[in-house]
Amino acid sequence: MSTAHTGSTKSGEAWRNWAGNVTSRPVREVTPASVEELTAAVRRAAEDGLKVKAVGTGHSFTAAAATDGVLIRPQLLTGIRTVDRENGTVTVEAGTPLKRLNLALAREGLSLTNMGDIMEQTVSGATSTGTHGTGRDSASIAAQIKGLELVTASGEVLTCSEKENPDVFAAARIGIGALGIVTAITFAVEPIFLLTAREEPMAFDRVLADFDELHAENEHFEFYWFPHTGNCNTKRNNRSAGPEAPVSRISGFVEDELLSNGLFQVVNSIGRAAPATIPAIAKISSKALSARTYTDIPYKVFTSPRRVRFVEMEYAVPRAALVETLRELKTMVDRSNLRISFPVEVRTAPADDIALSTASDRDTAYVAVHMYKGTPYQRYFTAAERIFTAHEGRPHWGKVHTREAAYFAEVYPRFAEFTALRDRLDPDRLFGNAYLRRVLGD
């Protein structure tokens, strides 16, 4: 078979995600260098009776991208196609890492309005699973999509926007790989701006008492609660007229590398070996980071390096239910013999109009629980999930959860709209796998 038509092809090797909790062994891997090569690979897989999945950098904790069929790797489909300054958009190839997009946009004097806290993922992987940051008025990365290009099961290339194939656009911005393979995305962008970040410790009870006010007064508010303590670290990001006042190289090394990555790795390793030490370590860790304020361009404020590996569950609950959800989570941890060395992360998002967005049609708060890689996480996650689902929580599509299609049909008002579209675009489930069978049904 000539690789001129299908891109670089090789026999499949075991694939493993970033956290190491998901593995699969595809029959073959294809690395297409063009949309034409990708469509040829999709058609060939269909002829061979094989399933097809595209995978980015493997930052999902679920098996959303796992396959025993054909694994598409999009790392050659990268770069910016067009910049439209008049309409405030940029069109980018689907395999482009967010890190490269952010750097390229900054060179053009442009920026996304909001973003998540890491930028290792590909743009298509991040948007397809609903990756988000925190925002009072600005939503997930997918909510900033103005158009996308999708290869369907028939090998057709669909261009989708609010005007062109609007029903597909409404769903495919967060499609979990179920509707086809995204090959390009058009994002809304704006002239680059400055953000001032104010980070400071705050008591858990005060954060909860003042949460509505903190959310209303800040464009981007988030906080981390350290289990086994009454301590939080808060972060407020707001637009600034400047001047730039970035984190100094020394402060950045001490706080972001030494404390948040290096020392954090060490204390988690100690905690895994000797769980009884975790509450004492947590009290020290929760006070290790001091208050600081800095001003920089958006991606340098929103994102930070995450080198300590972990497993994560994150649920979106109605924003009005956040305080009660967190109180129940803290009570559960305090009454248990669980030992949790990772902080709980809390963020927000406004309602959006994407069918399977975790913020679909409702103002949302996110609660993320983590466990250090190699530490048993099931008991903690099961207890947390019981609390989240009692508040009609919606799990992040790329993070650990146990929910099935019947549950999603109850908590997503437009779930049936999505599954009907899937039936039309992929009736034979060419893009299916065990995870999609569980969350979307068959």
Polypeptide structure, described:
It is a single chain. By secondary structure, the protein is α+β, with helices and mostly antiparallel strands. It is globular and about 60 Å long. Helix 11 runs antiparallel to helix 12 (378-390). The protein has helices spanning 3-6, 35-47, 98-107, 123-128, 166-172, 204-209, 211-217, 249-273, 278-285, 298-302, 322-335, 378-390, 405-411, 415-425, 434-440, and strands at 8-11, 15-16, 23-24, 28-31, 52-54, 70-72, 80-84, 89-93, 110-111, 145-151, 157-161, 181-188, 190-191, 194-203, 220-225, 231-240, 292-296, 310-318, 344-349, 364-372, 394-395. A hairpin with a 5-residue loop joins strand 10 and strand 11. It has 15 helices and 21 strands. The two termini are 33 Å apart.
Q: What's the helix and strand layout?
A:
Elements: H1 3-6, E1 8-11, E2 15-16, E3 23-24, E4 28-31, H2 35-47, E5 52-54, E6 70-72, E7 80-84, E8 89-93, H3 98-107, E9 110-111, H4 123-128, E10 145-151, E11 157-161, H5 166-172, E12 181-188, E13 190-191, E14 194-203, H6 204-209, H7 211-217, E15 220-225, E16 231-240, H8 249-273, H9 278-285, E17 292-296, H10 298-302, E18 310-318, H11 322-335, E19 344-349, E20 364-372, H12 378-390, E21 394-395, H13 405-411, H14 415-425, H15 434-440
Parallel strand pairs: 4-6, 5-6
Antiparallel strand pairs: 1-4, 2-3, 7-8, 8-12, 9-13, 10-11, 10-12, 14-16, 14-17, 15-16, 15-19, 18-20, 18-21, 19-20
Helix pairs in contact: 11-12
